[in-house]
């Protein structure tokens, strides 16, 4: 080899080393600037979670339409119908796709799956029960304490990182929720706000307790999903959630002697839509939380408020106020900040194959 070729080769090696580092095992790690496809690939879990919030908002809009057209259906009956649809969809899918243990789930995570199912029931039922004596705004603000408590639980129980930046983003998102919902206990009485009767102080206190039950239930459910990770198929997680919700709700209606309401065909269609939207929501949410840390993942759940405002405007003609718009901007900005706040994607180049291995944390 000539001296010029040797010098040229030396220059190329030096240039390459500026963007690459060699690990102890000999693999080359490339820290080049991420492209748009790289950002999407590294945040696919967050995108699943944000998509889930859209379908969740559709589900609550369906419930709102149902309550306007029919005799009110008890929360436990709504849960039974919704979760029965989810359970049948999950089992049918797993049987068709020949996924092992469609009902019992993988043996090594069954206890976590049961924990997810039971805690998920309390998270779901708490928000429905709280709306009997709390306004939607009050309940929403209280329920959205879940991302903060879940991030702390993930940090303590799962030893996941929880940075100061993520805490600030979570606090800003909660501020955005407050601005969007404008709860009367903070902003006073709002004329024509459409709030439900608040009941007696004792009933309101019980409703606040139901919200706290929902927060704790959701915290346990989301933390369990993260602990399960990819050791179980997402349909296994949904199967246990829907099964335990159906069982506990049925027992609750029997013990509390709650009558079954038979709506019109249109009402049954709305209930079926609640089940379908709920199934899609839980599927996307489970897939997202299996790919994201708890602290990052739950931040994307705040976007549900934005979708709810948009759908209410489209279906019910409700015009969001300036405070709602400001709050929505804060929520979306916080979620986007969490998405792009990583140090950049990592690439592992081994055996002449460039393999994307995710962002640094």
UniProtKB/TrEMBL annotation:
It is found in: Membrane. GO terms for cellular component: membrane. It comes from the Eukaryota. Keywords: Membrane, Transmembrane, Transmembrane helix. The chain crosses the membrane at residues 44-63, 75-97, 141-158, 167-185, 205-225, 237-260, 266-285. Residues 44-181, 219-339 form the EamA domain. The keyword Membrane applies. It is a multi-pass membrane protein. This is Drug/metabolite transporter superfamily. It comes from Suillus subaureus.
